[in-house]
Amino acid sequence: MTDGRDGxxxxxxxxxxxxxxxxxxxxxxxxxxxxxxxxxDSVEVPVWEVGDWWLYTFSxxxxxxxxxxxxxxxxxxxxxxxxxxxxSSLSEARRHAVLNHNPFLGRxxxxxxxxxxxxxxxxxxxxxxxxxxxxxFTLFSTEWSSSVRGxxxxxxxxxxxADDGSQLEYVYDGDVGFFSAFFWTDASGVEQMRMMLAxxxxxxxxxxxxxRGGDLYSDEWEDTGPDIxxxxxxxxxxxxxxxxxxxxxxxxxxxxxxxxxxxxLTLRDHxxxxxxxxxxxxxxxxxxxxxxxxxxxxxxxxxxTFTGNTYLRLMIAGGIxxxxxx
Length: 326
Hints:
By secondary structure, the protein is mainly beta. The protein has 3 helices and 22 strands. A hairpin with a 4-residue loop joins strand 12 (167-173) and strand 13 (178-185).
């Protein structure tokens, strides 16, 4: 009974927060994105232009309060049926490629702003957005049943549920042409993603990037004990449709306890050349480290040694980088 009451309290608090956010958005009066059409009980799909942008803060279990500026880089993808939503920071584009935490990068359809996941457009919003409208879609490899909770001017509050108890809560703001908030909470109540709008506008200039990623390796080790060595290998093939990777991208967390605790990491390619080497001694730690390995080869060997109280998480993805100068 306690778990059920806590779940109700959590949903009530989330609904209240979204209501406050919706009211604040309605009062902001921002109209910088072209082609917005809306009314008191229905909101139509926006028309984006190259250079339209949105600045978001992102929080996930992997890191908190990261900012990213999403920018419309192209309006003619997929035979003129989709936009390309890129990012103004190459490092953030690489982070997305290895963590895959933001589904709203890359291609987005003109028709419904559907995000592509695993090559398929996912109808997170089914325009026009009307009071009590319902639909189903797949995102984060999960089936969702979604409904419009309320429409206030050009702001639309939407909720979605999965059979396992996972929830999505998001607000589409027609005055800025995109989300003002997007929350994903898993079945255990852990917030897997929080996306909040900080600013928006049009006419962005400069270079923007999208890194198409693919998972190559992921594992973690904890409390591994004294003097343990681990060896592992993985094969690096091409992207299924776009050919060779430009680079490999790694993301790691490491922590050593006191005393004689230590970690060593060595990654070698098929020619036994060292691609990545790291050493952590007693009391050393780092979190959310992002880096690149410039020359992928067919096979890699990972060698790890652990002494004492240690923790290591390592994720590696292939990346193909596209860029646009606006």
